Amino acid sequence: MTGGQSRAWDDDGVPFLARLERDDRTALLSIGRPLSYRERGVILHQDEPSSHVLLLLHGWTKVTAIAVNGYEALLALRGPGDIIGEGAALSGRHRSATVTALEPVEAVVIDQGRFTLFVSEHPRVALHLLSLSTDRQRSTDRRRLEWAALTVRERLAVLLLELVRTHGSRTDEGIELTIGLSQQEFAGSVGSSREAVARLLKELRDRQVVATRRRRIVVLRPDVLHRIAGDTSA
Q1: Boundaries of each HTH crp-type domain copy (predicted)?
Q2: How far apart are CA 189 and CA 175, in angstroms?
Q3: pLDDT tens digits, 94-106
Q4: CB count in 10 Å sphere of residue 127
Q5: What backbone phi and psi angles, to 5 degrees, belong to 85?
Q6: Full-model pTM
Q7: 17-62 pLDDT, tens per residue?
Q8: C-alpha distances in angstroms, 91 versus 43, 73, 94, 121?
Q9: Dist CA 125 CA 118 (whole Å)
Q10: Contact yes or no for 10/76 (Cβ under 8 A)
Q11: In the Cβ-directed half-sphere of 6, how many Cα atoms lie within 13 Å?
Q12: Of 74, 96, 77, nearest to 86 (Cα)?
């Protein structure tokens, strides 16, 4: 079981590069330069001035933001085919979030000036950017509405099931999540504290619903997670 049909925290599952016509995609990639990032390396920093955008070719990243009170929230996962940093580049504002590599990442970096000129000269690309932005906002609004009706336990179950679909690899033991997230990152995603998430994960371990490793989780009983999440069709 691997990801591909749906993507957690994302739009309709179609990454930006896949939305473009082949000629537009080739032309856009040609104005950038390749760049690599090591696992856990910070790619973009929240509140820094915008100077470039990145097109992800290989590897997954996390998008996080820190509130005034120091709370860190996991906003999204971005992977192959996605674009990051385009909002700040087009608006001229500072970065709204930090982007960190969850594994080795290969990307194409495009200077802000080149990117904005390209978009202004390629209306089809501009329309796809607008469509992407709209889809992401709708996804955020939908998640916010759904989250409001769920307990933290239910949110965690939903999140684990999403990751099973998008980043799950079947093993002899169960379905291993191939993307490593810390307890703090899980907490930031479900809107809770690290301590509360740690207690819930311990509860799931004790019930043999999941097994945990360092930054790795194996889901042993997805059927139980479906029941916790209130999915009666499971």
Answers
A1: 150-223
A2: 21
A3: 999 999 998 999 9
A4: 11
A5: 90, 5
A6: 0.81
A7: 999 999 999 999 999 999 999 998 999 999 999 899 999 999 999 9
A8: 19, 23, 9, 17
A9: 9
A10: yes
A11: 9
A12: 96
Give the residue from 130, 148, 129 showing the smallest Cα distance to 140: 148
* Confidence band, pLDDT 50/70/90 cuts, at residue 231: low
pLDDT digits (tens, 9 = 90+) for 95-154: 999 999 989 999 999 999 999 999 999 999 999 999 999 998 898 888 888 888 899 999
Token pair for 62: 């996390």
User: In whole angstroms, what is the distance from residue 223 CA to residue 231 CA?
Assistant: 9
Within 8 A by CB and 6+ apart from 91, the residues are: none
**Average confidence (pLDDT) over 185-207:** 91
Tokens of 38: 């090591």
A 10 A CB-CB count for 208 gives 11
Q: What is the mean pLDDT of the chain?
A: 88
